[in-house]
Q: What sequence folds into this?
């Protein structure tokens, strides 16, 4: 049975059984912002290259 997560906009997203890697390849990392559509958290790339330290929380929509 498929699992779904409720998104802030009222939609839903299918939850996978296992995590996957999302990779952004860019020459200009600080132009990127990512947003979690379930929690509303937004992160801006800071230019660091170490995994786990590449993004800073910039906004948390409630």
A:
């Amino acid at each position: 049975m498929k699992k779904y997560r409720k998104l802030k906009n009222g939609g839903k997203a299918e939850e996978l059984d296992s995590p996957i890697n999302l990779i952004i390849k860019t020459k200009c990392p600080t132009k990127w912002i990512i947003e979690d559509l379930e929690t509303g958290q937004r992160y801006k790339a800071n230019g660091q290259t170490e995994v786990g330290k590449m993004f800073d929380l910039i906004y948390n929509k409630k």
